[in-house]
Amino acid sequence: MIIDMHVHTRVSLDSPATVEDYCRAIKRFRRYHPFHGIVLTEHRVYHHDEKYKRIAEKYDILIFQGIEVDTNLGHMLLYGITNEFLRRIDISNRRIETSTIVQAINDSGGIAVPAHPFRESVIGVALEEKREEIQGISVIEELNGVNDRSQNEKASRLVFNNGLYGMAGSDAHFSNSHWFLTCATEFYNPIHTVEDLIGELKKGAFRPIVLDNSVMGKF
Prior knowledge:
This protein is an alpha/beta fold. The chain has one domain: TIM Barrel, CATH 3.20.20. The chain contains seven helices and nine strands; from the N terminus they run E-H-E-H-E-E-H-H-E-H-E-H-E-E-H-E. The chain has helices at about 20-30, 50-60, 85-90, 100-105, 125-130, 150-160, 195-205, and strands at about 1-5, 35-45, 60-70, 75-80, 110-115, 140-145, 165-170, 185, 205-210. The strands form two sheets. It has a seven-stranded mixed beta sheet with strand order 5-4-3-2-1-8-9, sandwiched between helices. Helix 1 (about 20-30) links the parallel strand 1 and strand 2 (about 35-45). Helix 1 (about 20-30) runs parallel beside helix 2.
């Protein structure tokens, strides 16, 4: 199953895209290539909206929700958000201690994944140096659709050299071909719920993939 693990909408305030914009693009893309879902990782806000369930059913697309938070070392993608976690962490804070966020999401049964660890982040370097403050990380965003090649290559080397798992997300802020359907994560087992998603991430049963959206022309 193929899921884009890093997508932003207008809720993030730096994107004009709606969930339906992405779903319409996916519907066209699936004429040429399998694709199953997206994870909304809005900046510093958890926007739980019941209408997403209706949109998911309308387009037969999985729509999950996470968060992208700011830590003292860089951005972190969080999956498995619970009320307990939201009571414990002020997700609007732009300087959350990395060790605090990793511990809190792990305690809540979720998982933290460093986003673009070599772009606007020192998390990649911290992992290379095996700093104590970054312990508890097993998955990183190996491919990010907004990164340049060297940033993704550094992340791939980090995965290979340190026994980590690498996933991928577009980091889309727009639903056009420059931003969206550029890369994603292929899971080896079926995913139906966010709990399934977290379980597969923790097992490492996935791989990052590059998508060829040129088959669609400009969109």
